[in-house]
Structure prediction request, 269 residues.
Amino acid sequence: SPFYSTSNQTSLTISNDYTNVNTTIDSSGNAFGNLIVYLDFPSDALSTTQTASLAKTTNSYFSFSHAPNISYYPHLFSLTSTTEMTTPYQMTFTLPVSNGFILFDSEGTRKISTTLIGQLSIARWDDIGRWLTQTSTATIQSRSTGSSAIITASVNATGRFGVIDTSGVNADSKTSLKIINKIFKPSSTVNSFSSVTFTFPNPNNNFVELKIFDLSGHQIYKAQSSGGSSLSWSGNMLSGGLVNNGLYLYMIKLNNNNQTFSGYIMAAR
Prediction:
C-alpha cells in the first residue's frame, strides 16, 4: 500500500512502486501521484485540459545539489503547455519513518530524527543553483501499519521539487522574494527558460496579486491567487499573444497590500 493516507485516495493514479506517472487535468481538477509525491488540483486551477507528468529525477532517493542545499526525493512536475495557474494546488511528500527516524534513502544511511521534522520543507529548484523553500507544514502521521512524515505546501508552478532540511539554508531564502529566470524567453513551447517565477513568503496563505506593466505604465498582465508562495508569468498579454523583447515592471501584493514586492524583469525572445 502507498505510504500516504488521504481522504480522496481513490482518485489517485498510482503505480505499484516508486516510479513516473501521468494523468489528465482539466477545469474540474484531479489528483495523482506515486508512492512519494501526491498532487491535488482543485477545480479551475487550470483553464484548459493538460497532460500532467510527475517523474523522479534520480535513480536513488537523494540528490546532492550545491550543498548545504541537499534535496531529497527530487521530482519533476510538468504540463504539456505553458499555463498560468489561478488557484494553487497542494503538493504532498510522504516519507518513510523507521525507529524514530525519517529516511532519505532505501538503506537508511541518510536520515533525520522525527523530533526535527519542523526543519523539513518542500523546495523548488531555480535552475541556477538554489533550492527555494515553499511555505510548508510537516507532521508525523501514525497508523497501525507504521508512521510516515507528511510535508505539504500550496504551490502555483511547475518545475523540479524536493524535500530539504532548512537548517542548512540561509535565512534570506525564507523571507525574501526570489525570482527564477529574471531574464526569460517567452515561448509557446515549455522549457526551463520560457517563464519567470516569483517565489515569496506567504506563511498564512494570504491572497496574492501579480501585475505586469510595460515601461509606459500600461498594465499588460494580471494574475491572482487565493494562496500559495509562488506565481509565474510566461510572457502572455491580456490582449493576447506574447510580449516583445524589453524590460517589464512587476508588482506583487500580498494580503490586501500589507506586503508589496516590485522590480524589473527582462523578456528576451
